[in-house]
Design goal:
The complex is a heterodimer. Chain A is mainly alpha-helical. Helix content of chain A is about 65%, strand content about 5%. Chain A is flat, with a radius of gyration of 26 Å. By secondary structure, chain B is mainly alpha-helical. Chain B is about 70% helix and about 0% strand. Chain B has helices at about 10-40, 55-85, 90-100, 105-120, 125-130, 135-150, 150-155, 195-230, 235-250, 250-260, 260-265, 270-275, 280-290, 295-320, 330-360, 365-370, 375-385, 390-410, 425-430, 440-465, and strands spanning about 175, 185. Classes of the chains: A mainly alpha, B mainly alpha. The interface between A and B is large, with 61 and 56 residues.
Chain lengths: ~350, ~475
């Protein structure tokens, strides 16, 4: 077991390094750097001036060295211009280069300075991650129980009307990406033009011109209420619910055909007890893996939903970083994303071994 | 000219019917769920004498679900049919008028279904699809959009790029005196263009890329997955590591890195295209070569034709250097296409690899090895045909997934021209005013959802039928 975890950790580390390098390479391409030079310096810089700017700000040279600097395993760059002023990765202008640390990258806690937020990346990203954390938590609280109940209900009697109705629902929800369900939910619940809000206003249940739910979750940044948070949470959860429910159903139907279930039925155990005591525990092993592997997908959903509902969290930050060519911020976002994905993969692997007594790794 | 209502003159009678049946359906569904959760849904409650005679309440709820569902469906179909025979759009209503506009699609669907059902016993797996209701519904939805894409020029009511003054964000059914048709069936968007025509044209945009990109992803996945699964060892470890690398990337991040105007300047999409587009040629060449290498003239013919056409298309598609100018792809489109193929291939690779590892332990593979068949012959002509069932199912699912990915790209405005009518970017355009005017975003959203739903149902039907063998 220990060796298995160690080996997995090794592969994980290798993957993380490879992935961050790819992101680093793609964000630090020459056209991106030129764009950065023009936004940071001046729009009307000549080609030569742009090249000088890139060189003077440590963006020239081998991409491997620059990646090492960013990671913090290669000494940071320094540049002394003709006036004798020295600039470098690890210190501001005016500070003494001699006292500054030689290494200052990710590993030393220096994640760079965000040109979009005009603040250190680590500070601004932490706040955004907390906002997304709440969103994820709410999604998990809605998604996991709902999908497991749906899956178990439809899987316990294969082919029944319940099964077919719930399976249709699951298929429909997996066919609805977040940007579609978000639009549909807003049209149904959060516009004064269509859906149920005009009806409710007519009946006097809500004020006229108001809507039942809010189409923007910006106010949820300070104060989460049911009315501003329900739609974004439902939008992300819906896509996952169908998928997890289908996996749970498949695993449940398989368990229900096992011999020991038949034995239990034949010896007169009530159907309910059979499902709750005998079937459920074995049927929930597979969905556990699926739920953990669903995290990368949630990340996707978070990006779409946060842009759609204007909720300023991690996903929104990623979009802003990418569209504003904010290289340090985008790199930090990708580090977070990659770590989340790899950690959930590891947890799902280890958890599967723990949950399933039939698998024993030496 | 008047504004159109949704249901036209038939609606006055049928609309209350639909409302009542839908309400009944909702009540029945809730009742059923409550009964199931309360444990009152079983094969039967014990009667007075202890035997299971009386029907459980859940049974009646199921009956109610079925009845109300079919009643609602029948009423809606009645409105569509009534609309189709009405002389003018005013009486037909929006739904009826749309039914009329889609006439080539109905003809195409009818022809497809009549012919397919007539000859279904001779059509293999495709014919068997018509034994499964779910599969048929899925196939009908998919074919609906395929025919819509083919006949889009006939269906649209006006040019999807034309803007008419005074129709900005107007509601569905608004009269448009300047339009050749006279109405905007699904209203106007934020630039006063016809939402209905844009939705129809969007089908063409989506169906132009999604199936082709999925096919390419399959070629890449199969060509790499077969040897990885069959030989195993270091080769497998290496390719699997690369595949896991791509799979561990959050898709949106990858899109934001790969589909930008800046990256087109560096030529990375062309390099990727040069790499990925090579796989179909390799696949087909190896396929023919392994089959016919005992018969050189035939082998040379097939491989020659493949190489000739393949390399010709390759030079045009990947590098835009086709000497005859037949094959070409816009840089925008190439970028999107390559990224989608790149994202999809590792998934296909994993499936193929798993299937091969399962199948290679079978007796007929051992028999082939004993006969002295080469490894590529065994992979391509013994293992691959036996893996076709799950692969076809995955192909359908993956087209749906690709459609979602393309929509995501459009939604973030990546790699598409700003006024393109494809569904993703239309949703993106509509979302800014979503809570005031939901209709411009709703039409493409429902269209995309129905296409993906159709593909999922089709895959489900195919899986069901292929498991019956």
């Amino acid at each position: 077991m220990g060796l298995f975890v160690l080996r997995r950790l090794g592969v994980m580390l290798l993957t993380a390094i490879a992935l961050t390098f790819v992101v680093f390479f793609l964000t630090n391409l020459q056209p991106n750097l030129e764009k950065l030079a023009r936004t940071e310096g001046s729009v009307r810089m000549s080609e030569e001036a742009v090249q000088d700017w890139i060189e003077q700000n440590g963006h020239s040279g081998s991409v491997f060295l620059r990646y090492g600097q960013w990671l913090g395993v290669v000494p940071g760059w320094t540049y002394t211009d003709e006036k004798g002023d020295t600039r470098g990765r690890c210190f501001q202008i005016g500070e003494d280069p001699a006292t500054a640390p030689r290494y200052c990258g990710l590993l030393q806690g220096n994640w760079g300075y965000s040109t979009f937020f005009k603040a250190p990346v680590l500070d601004s990203l932490g706040e955004k991650l907390a906002a997304t954390g709440w969103l994820m938590l709410a999604v998990m609280l809605v998604m996991v129980p709902t999908s497991l109940i749906l899956g178990v209900l439809s899987g316990m009697r294969e082919g029944s009307v319940t099964d077919r109705t719930l399976s249709t629902f699951s298929i429909a929800s997996t066919a609805t990406p977040e940007y579609v369900s978000g639009v549909v939910l807003v049209a149904l619940f959060a516009t004064a033009a269509t859906g149920i809000s005009p009806l409710l206003a007519e009946w006097g249940l809500i004020e006229p011109k108001k809507t039942l739910f809010l189409a923007s979750a910006t106010s949820a940044m300070d104060d989460i209420t049911f009315w501003n948070f329900a739609l974004p949470v439902m939008t992300i959860a819906l896509y996952g619910i169908g998928y997890i429910a289908r996996m749970t159903r498949a695993s449940m139907t398989e368990v229900m055909t096992q011999q020991y279930i038949r034995t239990a039925r034949l010896k007169g155990v009530p159907f309910r007890t059979v499902v709750m005591r005998h079937a459920l525990r074995n049927a929930l092993i597979a969905p556990f893996t699926v739920i953990m592997l669903q995290f990368p997908w949630l990340l996707n959903g978070v990006v779409i939903v946060e842009s759609l509902f204007n909720y300023k969290g991690f996903g929104w930050t990623l979009v802003q970083a990418a569209s504003n060519n904010d290289i340090p911020l985008l790199l930090a976002c990708s580090v977070v994303a990659v770590v989340v994905v790899l950690l959930t993969q590891l947890i799902s692997d280890i958890g599967y071994v723990f949950l399933n007594p039939r698998i024993r790794l030496a | 000219m008047d504004q159109l209502t949704w249901t036209g003159s038939a609606g006055t009678i049928l609309l209350p019917v639909i409302q009542i049946t839908l309400l009944a359906l909702a009540v029945a569904l809730v009742a059923k769920l409550v009964l199931v959760l309360a444990g009152l849904d079983g094969p039967g409650l014990p009667g007075p004498d202890g035997a299971a005679t009386a029907r459980a309440p859940g049974h009646y709820a199921s009956l109610a679900i079925r009845l109300s569902f079919f009643a609602a469906l029948a009423a809606i179909l009645c409105i569509l049919a009534a609309g189709a025979v009405m002389p003018s759009p005013v009486e037909a209503g929006i739904l009826g008028a749309m039914t009329v506009r889609f006439w080539p699609v109905w003809l195409g669907l009818a022809a497809t279904f009549i012919l397919s059902i007539r000859f279904r016993r001779r059509l293999g797996l495709y014919g068997k699809l018509f034994d499964s209701t779910v599969g048929m519904i899925g196939f009908a939805i998919v074919m609906f959009w395929v025919f819509t894409a083919i006949f889009a020029d006939v269906i649209i009511t006006q040019d999807p790029f034309v803007q008419l003054s005074g129709l900005k964000n107007k509601v569905p059914g608004i009269a448009a005196p300047d339009s050749p048709y006279g109405w905007y069936l699904l209203g106007g968007d934020h630039l006063a263009r016809d939402v209905f025509s844009r939705m129809v044209m969007g089908a063409r945009e989506v169906l132009k890329i999604a199936p082709a990109a999925t096919l390419f992803a399959f070629m890449v996945g199969i060509t790499l997955g077969l040897p990885a699964g069959y030989f195993g060892g270091k080769l497998d470890t290496f390719i699997s590591f690369l595949a896991n690398l791509v799979l561990a990337f959050p898709v949106i991040l990858l899109f934001y890195l790969l589909v930008t105007p800046e990256i087109r300047d560096t030529g990375i999409p062309i390099v990727l295209a040069g790499l990925l587009f090579l796989f179909p040629i390799i696949f087909l060449t190896v396929l023919w070569n392994s089959r016919y290498y005992t018969n050189p003239p035939q082998r040379n013919l097939y491989v020659g034709i493949t190489l000739l056409i393949g390399l010709w298309a390759y030079s045009g598609l990947a590098f835009n250097m086709d000497p005859l100018g037949v094959w070409s792809m816009e840089p925008n489109m190439l970028n999107v296409f390559v990224s989608v193929v790149f994202v999809n291939s590792p998934g296909v690779f994993r499936i193929v690899r798993g299937l091969v590892m399962d199948i290679k332990a079978r007796d007929y593979v051992a028999a082939g090895q004993t006969r002295g068949e080469g490894p590529w012959y065994i992979m391509l002509w013994e293992i691959l045909p036996n893996a076709r069932g799950p692969l076809i199912v995955d192909f359908c699912l993956r087209i749906g997934y690709t459609t979602i990915l393309l929509g995501t790209l459009g939604f973030f405005g990546l790699g598409v021209s700003p006024d393109s009518p494809d569904w993703g970017s239309t949703i993106d355009d509509g979302r800014k005013l979503l809570n005031l005017f939901p209709h411009p975003a709703l039409a493409p959203a429902l269209a995309l959802m129905s296409l993906v739903l159709g593909l999922n149902l089709l895959a489900d039907g195919l899986r069901e039928e292929s498991l019956k063998d």
